[in-house]
Amino acid sequence: MISVTEALSHLFALVRPLGSEWVPLAEAHGRVLAQPVQALRDLPPFSASAMDGYALRNAEVAVAAQFTVIGEAAAGHGFAGSVGPGQAVRIFTGAPLPEGTDRVVIQEDVDRQGDIITVRPDPDPAPYVRAKGSDFAKGQTIAGPKTLGANDIALMAAMNIAEVPVTRRPVVAILSTGDELVMPGDTPGPDQIIVSNSFGLQAMLRDLGCETRLLPIARDTEASLRAAFSHCEDVDLVITIGGASVGDHDLVGQVAVDLGMERSFYKIAMRPGKPLMAGRLTSGAVMIGLPGNPVSAMVCGTVFVAPVVRAMQGLKAQETAQKTAPLAHDIAANGPREHYMRGRLENGQLTVFDRQDSALLTVLADANALIVRPVRDAALTAGTMVNYIPI
Ligand code: AMP
Ligand code: MG
After folding, report:
1. 305 in Cβ contact with 291 (< 8 Å)
2. pTM for this one?
3. Mean pLDDT throughout 21-44?
4. How high is the pLDDT of residue 273?
5. What does the longest C-alpha to C-alpha distance in the chain come to?
6. For ligand 1, atom 14, which residue shows the shortest CA distance?
7. Which residue's CA is the closest to the ligand 1 atom numbered 17?
8. Best mutation site among 241, 246, 254, 361 for ligand 1, i.e. most ligand atoms within 8 A of its Cβ?
9. Atom in ligand 1 nearest the alpha carbon of residue 296
10. Rounded to an integer, what distance in angstroms lies between the CA atom of residue 181 and that of residue 226?
11. What CA–CA distances, in Å, run from 204 to 130, 198, 213?
12. Of 41, 183, 184, 245, which alpha carbon lies 20 to 30 A from 9's?
């Protein structure tokens, strides 16, 4: 048996980063920035008022000082003239600071009578000016590769970046295998169950930025599996589910090898999800064969498939990020396999569920954390800090 880390490094060795494409800014959210982009202008592009008030000369501000209001500057409507001694311009947030001024006295700090303003006692000393380029200057870059979040999109919009270079979405085929499986909505026979893993993994892969192709369920026959693989010629990654261990009906590996895959089969020292198959198909696509047990498939999706997909998109080849939090209660020692235990983080503390059977989807759905127990981890007491993967 090999460790999770070793298995991941074998998987990363199969990854070839995908090419890039340009997408409109509105479609860049969640995509991976493929190369640095540069601001096309300064923000603000002029010194701007940060408040509603009066623009004037800082040096002239004193309690009871008076100024004549000679005009107005609003956002999108600057004051065209120049401001001289003893003069002020009525100004609103976002308006360009008029020539000759270097401070905004907020409207609460003056009394106005006609065109004359008088500074009240104790005026707020802040200048309330956003200097030209103080947020970013033309040419400033956003470095890739990184997954673009909502705040990155706002920044790129302000930089006037209308088209964004992103890594192509990985195209992933998802293939569930098994004579016992039918689609949700179908009427199952007495010895059948509804396929669940395909849908769970599809959701996970979409969240990771993939384009997914849900293949029809393959039956436990060579012909059916061969037909399924024939629909995978033009994808980047094939995820098979089930049929991957060593039972009489576990034909996935055999068929893939017959079709030219160099197969690596890993027995991984982990729970849930011991068997994992991987290789490259003759088309060049990476194949990852996941165990069929629903929780195993989803946990292996988190632990193995997600890092592979991130690496394909040009992100750093590294394991799914872990966090730490204290245990809410004592837990027993771990055995010889790394254990990804379903649990919940609540109020900053981790509760590990009692039921850890790898077929229990309700337990997985209740979980928001996979508590990672190292091999032969000792029994731990409440309050001990442990690693977990948020799910
Ligand atoms: P297998 O790896 O094919 O031996 O499957 C192990 C267990 O997982 C069996 O109980 C299967 O019925 C179940 N299983 C396999 N594939 C799926 C799937 N796509 N959705 C739900 N359960 C599955
Ligand atoms: Mg099966």
Report:
1. no
2. 0.91
3. 97
4. 82
5. 94
6. 292
7. 292
8. 241
9. 8
10. 18
11. 43, 10, 13
12. 245
